[in-house]
């Protein structure tokens, strides 16, 4: 039977809000705190500021259990476990910016009945340093590392059905309480020390990013040698030791986490005196991969000056409106630098994209985007792009080039419409 322990969540961004709604679904009252007063007001008014499948419904269903406030005292007064889900973005040096985490630590009062439970992704050693800081300030707070592994686009399902739960703690009541909270989910538990829990999170993200950069390099070699990376990935992935996931070649990984966490792990290693050679390549391959589409377009169109390029999808992956580190940002900047004009369509990310891409034209529909376009580039594999009427697309385009940056389209359907299809790593 689910424990009804009241919970505090500090930071109601992506992870904070999904976690709060997930804990509410498990029957808990949740006090959600954020410094962003406008966000809190919107949440109080019933608005969900993030687009994520199932999240709006979950927040609505548990509105009575979700309490939103800017005052941390509301969480401290009701809950002994305070989950921290504030952002840890990259700094110019590539290290994680822990200023929001430190602000939370600094705001904690002296207390021997509360625990901070770290959900934010932090460098290894952060827990130890926060414990030292608490001790220095004479605060008897407990500390637990409980990294989050959810993916955007399937965040609610991932939170409620995780592959594993990792709890790093000092073997005290706080660790026991966190283990108890997650017990109803029935997931395998890794209970360990704080530093190891912190490293699990960074290593898992870095490994997944490595898998993507690896298959992208295989794709690039496929293009030189006539092999098809989809066939190669299928053949590799059936080996249980490799597995089929994260072997989708494309125009590089983006998002708020892989780029920053790979860089943070590289810096963490460097700061500790170890040169993490492999991660340098993972990062470099990813940077180059985002630009390879330019070469493909040049091959088909000659120069790009004066050419009109339509981008299908802008978000860093489908099922989200998140534009953080999206490959579309690099791609559109490169296209414009080479003299092309860019027109784009994304089913949900347009508002944020308009802010980040002031010189891009936005179309209301896919077909609106291709009107007069010399080439189309699929950037984000929203399923609706696969269903397009390619004969209609061809009739509206000025040119014939379709670059499938995610290998998500049906090449035969595109070619049957008289268009020139090129994917990533699909033969020479
Ligand atoms: N986005 C994702 O899919 C995942 C993110 N993570 C990690 O979780 C952490 C949070 O990520 P997101 O939710 O994406 O960040 P976010 O940027 O969407 O949300 C952070 C929230 O914290 C609030 N905040 C900042 N300082 C605060 C303070 N002192 N007190 C209260 N609230 C404060 C901000 O106003 C914002 O609403 C990061 O460390 C990230 O690496 C982990 C797994 C998945
Ligand atoms: O720490 C985090 O924030 C999260 O980072 C990723 O989740 P997320 O960034 O939401 O999305 P992913 O599905 O992992 O995709 C990341 C990027 O990799 C790209 N990708 C993914 C898979 C693949 O085979 N190929 C590929 O290019 C996607 O297009 C996207 O740009 C991890 O998958 C989560 O486990 C982790 O919790």
UniProtKB/TrEMBL annotation:
<feature type="binding site">
    <location>
        <position position="201"/>
    </location>
    <ligand>
        <name>substrate</name>
    </ligand>
</feature>
<comment type="function">
    <text>Catalyzes the conversion of UDP-glucose into UDP-glucuronate, one of the precursors of teichuronic acid.</text>
</comment>
<feature type="binding site">
    <location>
        <position position="34"/>
    </location>
    <ligand>
        <name>NAD(+)</name>
    </ligand>
</feature>
<dbReference type="Pfam" id="PF03721">
    <property type="entry name" value="UDPG_MGDP_dh_N"/>
</dbReference>
<feature type="binding site">
    <location>
        <position position="317"/>
    </location>
    <ligand>
        <name>substrate</name>
    </ligand>
</feature>
<dbReference type="GO" id="GO:0051287">
    <property type="term" value="F:NAD binding"/>
</dbReference>
<feature type="binding site">
    <location>
        <begin position="149"/>
        <end position="152"/>
    </location>
    <ligand>
        <name>substrate</name>
    </ligand>
</feature>
<feature type="binding site">
    <location>
        <position position="324"/>
    </location>
    <ligand>
        <name>NAD(+)</name>
    </ligand>
</feature>
<dbReference type="InterPro" id="IPR001732">
    <property type="entry name" value="UDP-Glc/GDP-Man_DH_N"/>
</dbReference>
<feature type="binding site">
    <location>
        <position position="152"/>
    </location>
    <ligand>
        <name>NAD(+)</name>
    </ligand>
</feature>
<dbReference type="Pfam" id="PF00984">
    <property type="entry name" value="UDPG_MGDP_dh"/>
</dbReference>
<keyword id="KW-0520">NAD</keyword>
<comment type="similarity">
    <text>Belongs to the UDP-glucose/GDP-mannose dehydrogenase family.</text>
</comment>
<feature type="binding site">
    <location>
        <position position="39"/>
    </location>
    <ligand>
        <name>NAD(+)</name>
    </ligand>
</feature>
<protein>
    <recommendedName>
        <fullName>UDP-glucose 6-dehydrogenase</fullName>
        <ecNumber>1.1.1.22</ecNumber>
    </recommendedName>
</protein>
<feature type="domain" description="UDP-glucose/GDP-mannose dehydrogenase C-terminal">
    <location>
        <begin position="310"/>
        <end position="411"/>
    </location>
</feature>
<dbReference type="InterPro" id="IPR008927">
    <property type="entry name" value="6-PGluconate_DH-like_C_sf"/>
</dbReference>
<dbReference type="InterPro" id="IPR014027">
    <property type="entry name" value="UDP-Glc/GDP-Man_DH_C"/>
</dbReference>
<feature type="binding site">
    <location>
        <position position="260"/>
    </location>
    <ligand>
        <name>NAD(+)</name>
    </ligand>
</feature>
<feature type="binding site">
    <location>
        <position position="121"/>
    </location>
    <ligand>
        <name>NAD(+)</name>
    </ligand>
</feature>
<feature type="active site" description="Nucleophile">
    <location>
        <position position="257"/>
    </location>
</feature>
<dbReference type="InterPro" id="IPR036291">
    <property type="entry name" value="NAD(P)-bd_dom_sf"/>
</dbReference>
<dbReference type="InterPro" id="IPR014026">
    <property type="entry name" value="UDP-Glc/GDP-Man_DH_dimer"/>
</dbReference>
<dbReference type="InterPro" id="IPR028357">
    <property type="entry name" value="UDPglc_DH_bac"/>
</dbReference>
<dbReference type="Pfam" id="PF03720">
    <property type="entry name" value="UDPG_MGDP_dh_C"/>
</dbReference>
<feature type="binding site">
    <location>
        <position position="88"/>
    </location>
    <ligand>
        <name>NAD(+)</name>
    </ligand>
</feature>
<dbReference type="GO" id="GO:0000271">
    <property type="term" value="P:polysaccharide biosynthetic process"/>
</dbReference>
<keyword id="KW-0560">Oxidoreductase</keyword>
<feature type="binding site">
    <location>
        <position position="254"/>
    </location>
    <ligand>
        <name>substrate</name>
    </ligand>
</feature>
<comment type="pathway">
    <text>Nucleotide-sugar biosynthesis; UDP-alpha-D-glucuronate biosynthesis; UDP-alpha-D-glucuronate from UDP-alpha-D-glucose: step 1/1.</text>
</comment>
<dbReference type="InterPro" id="IPR017476">
    <property type="entry name" value="UDP-Glc/GDP-Man"/>
</dbReference>
<feature type="binding site">
    <location>
        <begin position="246"/>
        <end position="250"/>
    </location>
    <ligand>
        <name>substrate</name>
    </ligand>
</feature>
<dbReference type="GO" id="GO:0003979">
    <property type="term" value="F:UDP-glucose 6-dehydrogenase activity"/>
</dbReference>
<dbReference type="InterPro" id="IPR036220">
    <property type="entry name" value="UDP-Glc/GDP-Man_DH_C_sf"/>
</dbReference>
